[in-house]
Design goal:
With 268 residues, the protein is mostly helical. The chain contains nine helices and two strands; from the N terminus they run ααααααββααα. Helix 5 runs antiparallel to helix 9.
Length: 268
């Protein structure tokens, strides 16, 4: 059985980032375009591509590790070797090693899946919060900023700046992790991520823009029937949309995301 870890020159305990880094390094070195189409290099390049295709996917890697472990556990015909010996103590030792390695495989897969789920949550929560905040602002048309004192306005502006910075960071991280740029050739020779991500950046940007437009439109539509809210609390809400409406969504996203991050830390 081919040992893909040896092919990529990494440890079986290597992280996903280490495997990806090793693949890129070898791919840049062995790419046929850099070796005048050498047949030997082309075979080596195909081998590392095959290894990364398996080890670069968490589920495929877990399945491969189990197969490799089975081979190591059951392999070896040399009676002088502890792996090939049928001695009761040797068999017990092999069983302990097998169980330990199997637990490592399962634990690593759980950790990677949890890490991926947390990364996805860090994209979903701000996006949903942004959509909801735009909907609410369009519905109620708050004027808290205009009716605040100077200190209140300074606080609003500070929170807005922090919220915008935070939101841009979350969106950028989400695009880099879960989307690919179809306008850029993702070459192995570059440091670009191989295009294994599910969505293009155009699709993601279109979804974001259309989602914001839909929430804003629905909010305005519903708001036409909620003038009584502004009549009851004129210091907080208005019947007309003002420019300050742009302040509130980033602030709302900032607070929602901070609560989410705090909840994750408490859960851990």
């Amino acid at each position: 059985m081919v040992n893909y870890y040896d092919t990529l020159k990494v440890s079986p305990k290597a992280s996903s980032a280490e495997i990806k880094s090793a693949y890129r390094r070898l791919a840049r070195k062995l790419h046929p375009d850099k070796n005048n189409g050498s047949e030997e290099t082309a075979r080596a390049f195909a081998a590392i591509a095959e290894a990364y295709e398996v080890l670069g996917n968490q589920k495929d890697r877990a399945a491969y590790d189990k197969q490799l472990l089975q081979v190591q556990y059951n392999g070896g015909t040399n009676g002088d070797s502890v792996f090939g010996s049928q001695n009761a103590h040797a068999r017990r030792w092999r069983q302990m090693v097998y169980e330990h390695r199997y637990n490592e495989i399962i634990n690593r897969m759980i950790i990677e899946e949890r890490r991926e789920a947390m990364a996805l949550q860090k994209v979903i929560f701000p996006t949903v919060a942004l959509f909801i905040s735009v909907l609410i602002v369009a519905m109620f048309k708050p004027v808290a900023f205009a009716n605040s004192a100077v200190v209140g306005k300074i606080i609003f502006i500070s929170l807005f700046a922090a919220g915008v910075f935070h939101l841009i960071g979350r969106i950028r991280d989400g695009l880099e992790r879960f989307t690919y740029d179809e306008n850029i050739h993702d070459s192995i020779l570059d440091d670009a991520e191989p295009p294994k991500r599910p969505y293009s950046r155009t699709v993601a940007a279109t979804f974001l823009v259309l989602g914001l437009a839909a929430c804003f439109g629905v909010g305005l539509l519903i708001g036409n029937y909620m003038d009584w809210v502004a009549a009851m609390m004129p210091q907080m809400f208005s019947t007309k949309l003002h420019f300050e409406a742009l302040l509130y969504p980033p602030i709302f996203v900032l607070f929602v995301d901070l609560v989410h991050v705090f909840a994750l830390r408490v859960d851990n």
